[in-house]
Automatic annotation (TrEMBL):
Putative gamma-glutamylcyclotransferase. Keywords: Transferase. Residues 20-131 form the Gamma-glutamylcyclotransferase AIG2-like domain. Belongs to the gamma-glutamylcyclotransferase family. PANTHER family: AIG2-LIKE PROTEIN D. GO terms for molecular function: transferase activity. Coiled coil: none annotated. This is Putative gamma-glutamylcyclotransferase. The keyword Transferase applies. SUPFAM superfamilies: Gamma-glutamyl cyclotransferase-like. It comes from Stephania cephalantha. The keyword Transferase applies.
Length: 162
């Protein structure tokens, strides 16, 4: 599982199309649409031998390798090279894009996909589990109380720059 730079060629989907395993804020179609200007086809998937952590003071998760664990998420299919570059910018320097083996839940099929893995494996701010539904509920309450117009505006104001 080697880190890949944003200049790496498309090895996952061929022909400039890629598969990307998402497990956090990119599970929200609204965030994907804001970034990519569309929502690619996707399939539910699991990533074996990884764990999804909460990060102290942050609303988004991190994953890192942990034996005998698995992360549930989905695979975005048909992501173009330019869209992959947008995701690289969104994930920033705290994550590195890696090629991983995922299992598509609905087809029991293994697939190579990119995933964004937390760079600092010894980060003391990683703890416990991160739950997408709990995060969405918390953000919804905050939005109602704070008058925010959308999940993406509230949680990711930096998206406006992309």
């Amino acid at each position: 599982m080697e880190p890949l730079s944003s200049s790496s060629s498309s090895v996952v989907g061929g022909g400039g199309l890629n598969s990307v395993f998402v497990y956090g804020s990119l599970l929200a179609d609204e965030v994907v649409r804001l970034l990519l200007k569309r929502v690619p086809l996707s399939s539910p998937a699991t990533l074996p031998n990884f764990h999804r952590f909460s990060i102290k003071g942050r609303i988004y998760p991190a994953i890192k390798p942990v034996e005998n664990n698995k992360v549930t998420g989905r695979v975005l299919l048909g992501v173009t090279d330019p869209e992959l570059e947008v995701l690289d910018i969104f994930e920033d320097v705290e994550y590195e894009r890696r090629l991983v083996d995922v299992t598509l839940i609905d087809r029991y099929e293994k697939l190579d996909a990119y995933a964004y893995v937390w760079v600092d494996k010894n980060d003391p701010n990683l703890y416990g589990d991160w739950d997408f539904e709990a995060q969405v509920f918390t953000r919804t309450i905050e939005e109602q109380n704070g008058g925010r117009s959308s999940l993406a505006d509230h949680c990711y104001p930096q998206l406006i720059r992309l």
